[in-house]
Design a protein that fits this description.
The protein has 410 residues and is α+β, with helices and mostly antiparallel strands. Helix content is 50%, strand content 14%. Strands 1-2-3-4 form a four-stranded antiparallel sheet. It has a four-stranded antiparallel sheet with strand order 5-6-7-8, covered by helices on one side. α1 packs antiparallel against α2, α4 packs antiparallel against α7 and α5 runs antiparallel to α6. It is globular, with a radius of gyration of 23 Å. This is Membrane-bound metal-dependent hydrolase.
Length: 410
């Protein structure tokens, strides 16, 4: 999922394991631990071609092996860090205080993005929240973080290991719940585990944990801190469980709709739209085409109306064996179609991530509605793949309004 969610979940795990001994420091340490697996994104700086990023992101650092091996290593390093009193230096305190400020800004800015709106009043509200929270944050950091002497400051190796283990484990578990998927069996297999039960951005999962952490951060006594943190974790976890129920309902509606409409299919996937788990999407595979549709759990009639999408798989027959194409095919896992462009290039559309707008939306050309797509070209006998980053066709404000209207059902 997104970085805000991963840092928040890691922070919650950090406080749950180390909070009694380290107080608010455990929140920041957990947030850092929760983002460690995503440092694999920096591998893109050393890649010959950015297409390899599809392979290396959510790869080995999101695996079971990494969780088991790296947890005790990071635990030992952390133990040495505190045993040698490196945490007491003014430089370290300044760096960590800066991290706190950035974490706060990330949360406030992230909430603004998650509730994106074109109205300047709401945008100004989030800026005001950031400004008003700055002074109390600095004061709290001074009293409860940088200058606070803890009663016990000696987490054991076991405590450290468990904290990192849970931070790494929960990181790839929730990543595996998204459509992007996670290679949890690396380096033994590149199979991507994807349960498709939650969007990569869902404030209803993230916000309860943020509230819980804020309550824990400002509470003075540990029992109260623990209560707030556990409350946030519990509410978020219950919401995550509920997403599987929504997916089950969607699966039933899709199967019933396909049968009633006489569509013979080989397989299908269901996945929620961005920011919620009420409005769901489906991509259906048939022998000669794909079908795409939406259904809201609030719809009065349990039915999915499909639009037919061409496969055109023959367009890449002559490129079979090309390494970059192989990566796209692996990542799409059978859910892709091809559209030839006027300039002779081919657009490779990954159908596991849905489309822009509603299935019956005629205001956007069908060829421009695919969210995740790559342009395939051949010049002077050289085959190349470039991700299409034409973001002008995506208007967040309009898209949010359209989705909200559809979420409410019809």
């Amino acid at each position: 999922m997104d970085s805000i969610t991963q840092a928040t979940l890691g922070a919650a795990m950090g406080h749950a394991i180390l909070g009694k001994k380290m107080g608010n420091k455990a929140i920041l340490i957990g947030a850092i631990a929760g983002t460690i697996p995503d440092l694999d994104v920096f591998s893109r700086l050393f890649l010959e071609d950015q297409i390899y990023g599809l392979v290396y992101h959510r790869g080995i650092t999101h695996s079971i092996l990494f969780t088991l091996v790296a947890s005790p290593i990071f635990a030992w390093l952390s133990l040495q860090y505190y045993k040698r009193d490196l945490h007491k230096s003014e430089i370290t305190q300044g760096i960590l205080a800066t991290w706190w400020f950035l974490f706060y800004g990330l949360i406030v800015g992230g909430l603004g993005f998650l509730t994106y709106t074109s109205h300047s009043l709401v945008a100004g509200g989030f800026l005001s929240l950031f400004a008003l929270g700055f002074i109390p944050l600095i004061k709290t950091l001074k009293n409860n973080y940088a200058h606070r002497e803890l009663i016990s400051y000696d987490p054991s190796f076991k405590n450290w290991t468990l904290m990192f283990f849970l931070a790494f484990l929960t990181h790839w578990i929730i990543d595996a719940c998204t459509a992007y998927g996670t290679q949890i069996f690396e380096p033994f297999s590149r199979y991507r585990v994807a349960f498709n039960n939650i969007s990569i951005l869902d404030p209803l999962y993230t916000v309860p944990m943020i509230i819980g952490l804020m309550g824990a951060f400002f509470a003075k006594k540990y029992p109260r801190q623990r209560f707030w943190n556990y409350l946030g974790i519990t509410v978020a976890s219950l919401y995550m469980v509920s997403t599987f129920y929504g997916k089950s309902v969607m699966n039933t509606v899709v199967a019933d709709s396909l049968q009633k409409q006489g569509i013979e299919y080989t397989e299908y996937i269901t996945y929620p739209t961005i920011l919620n788990t009420v409005l769901w999407q489906t991509t259906v595979v048939t022998e000669d085409a794909y079908y795409y549709g939406m259904y809201s759990l609030l719809d009065k009639n349990p039915k999915v109306e499909f639009v037919k999408l061409p496969k055109n798989h023959h367009l890449i027959d002559k490129y079979q064996g090309e390494e970059h194409l192989g990566i796209l095919l692996w990542f799409a896992n059978g859910y892709y179609n091809l559209i030839e462009q006027p300039d002779g290039s081919i657009m490779f559309n990954n159908l596991r991530f849905g489309m822009i707008g509603l299935p019956d939306d005629s205001t956007i050309p069908v060829n421009d509605r695919y969210i995740f797509r790559f342009r395939l070209t051949e010049k002077e006998g050289k085959f190349s793949v470039v991700e299409d980053r034409d973001t002008d066709r995506i208007k967040p404000g309009e898209m949010a309004q359209t989705l909200w209207t559809r979420i409410k059902g019809k």
